[in-house]
Design brief:
Layout lengths: L10 E4 L8 E8 L4 E4 L4 E6 L9 E6 L1 E3 L3 E4 L6 E2 L1 E5 L5 E5 L8
Antiparallel strand pairs: 1-2, 1-7, 2-3, 3-6, 4-5, 7-8, 9-10
The structure holds zinc ion.
Amino acid sequence: MFKAHVRKGDTVKVIAGEDAGKTGNVLSVDRASQRVVVEGINIQKRHTRPSQANPEGGIVRRPGPVHISNVMLVCPNCNQATRVGRSRGTDGSVTRVCKRCGKDID
Ligand SMILES: [Zn+2]
């Protein structure tokens, strides 16, 4: 299984595409398609008809998925976009490590 370097709830920086340079909160990660949905990134307008759930209809803006390689994790310790290392603890658990400041992320 593909190992994602970001998880739901992480703050990430977009490094490619229309929203390059923006940061946002990860709303979901789809490891199968290697895509992530990030708050405020790749906003797509959906024109919806009025329905029972949405009686007004109209235009709904929602973030669209971007490829996971186009986002970098923002380290909560040093606050910079960084690559992610992994270290395995004595109990076998895996911890993500910031390549910039060397601190644990999880
Ligand atoms: Zn760091």
